[in-house]
Structure formats: C-alpha cells, structure tokens
Amino acid sequence: MVMAIFQLALGSSMAQYATFNHDESVMNQVTIQETGSGSFCPDLYYDAFHKSYRNWAAEQNKLSFRTMTAASMKLQEPYAEKIDSDLVKRSRIEAENLLDREVDAAWLIEKGKLNTALDEFKGHIEQITLSGGNYRTYEDWREVYDMEVAGVQYMQDGYMPNSERQEQYMQIYKDIKLQDKKLKKLLLILKQSKTPYWCNRTLRRKEALVKNTSLNSLSRWKSAAVQAMQRK
What we know:
This protein is an all-alpha fold. Among the domains are: 25-60, no CATH class; 104-194, no CATH class. The chain is 82% helix and 0% strand. The chain has helices spanning 2-15, 24-35, 43-49, 51-56, 62-102, 105-126, 135-157, 162-192, 197-231. Helix 6 (105-126) runs antiparallel to helix 7, helix 6 (105-126) packs parallel to helix 8 (162-192) and helix 7 packs antiparallel against helix 8 (162-192).
C-alpha cells in the first residue's frame, strides 16, 4: 500500500514537471524567420533540398515587414491628421447647415408682412358677394387664397437654408399682392356695374312673383264673377 502511494505521488510530480529540449536547428529557423539573423542548421541539408527557401528566407523576415509597416504608417500620419481635421471642419459646417435648415428664422422676419397681406387678401375676397359677385367667383378666389396659405406652410415645413426660404417667402408675398391687385380691380368693376348679378337675379325673382300673384288674383276674381252670375 505504501509503495503504491509512493509511486502515485512520484508519477503526479513527474507529470507536472516541464522538460526543455534545445534544438539548435529549430531555434535558427525561428530566428531567421523573425529577425533574419543566424543560419540554417545543418546548412548542407537546406542547400541540397531547400535552396530557394534558404536563399531568400533571411531577406523576407518579419522584422523587415514590421519596420516597413511602421515607416509607411509614419508617412501616412500627416494625411491622416489632415483628413481628421477636414472631417471635423466638415462636421461643423454640416451642423451649421442642419441648424440653418431646421430653424425657420426667415419666418420670424417675414411673418408680419405675409400675415398682413393674407389678411387684406382674405378681406377683399369676403367682399365679392357683397359687391355683386356670385358664389362661384367667391369660391374661385377662395381657392387662390388657400393655395397661397399652403405655399407658406410648405415653406415652413421645407428643409432648406434660411436664405432660400426667405427668397421664397418674398416670392409668395409678391404673388399675394399681385392677386389682391387683380381682385380689387374686379371689386371695382362689380361696384360700378349698373346691374349687379345678384340684384338682377333678385329683381327677376320678384317680378315673377308679382306676375304670378297678379295672374292668380285675376283668375280668382273671374271665377268669383262667373259663380255670382250663375247664382242669379
């Protein structure tokens, strides 16, 4: 029992013991691959069976590649720094552009002028029927007003620089004033007209009503006269 325990302990201790067997040929090959220094061993064997590998292995070592890579990266540092600087500048410009496109600063400047023009235009539209225009004319001009309002809302929701947005606001303002000028001419013509549409139509209705009433009264009078004669 004692011998068995002793052998088991000895076996476990030998299993944990690390051995090191030095092989000069393997060490030289690894050294040549890593740094290019040293020589193959045995040289006669490599000269006979691996001559091409023996001739260029020292030149194609890992240290040379590492040195070339480091030198190449060093040469690229100025370009990388320039690219990084350009990207930072570009990001700042894009941030300014994004802020310029999302914040409608042009509306804060032009809203008073546009709202006043729209209110005046709407007020003149409401005078169409009062000046003798028909309801169809009123609807047509109301559609023009709605188109101008939609144009303003489209500019407010659009993604564009404030300079371009302000230019579009001014164009809409000019168009509103132009349409309002045309409408005022129409209102002047309607007011100066001697037979406004609505008056003419109302008078025709009244004349027809009076005529029909007179005819009905005459018919009733004749019927009553005939009945009176028959009673006699």
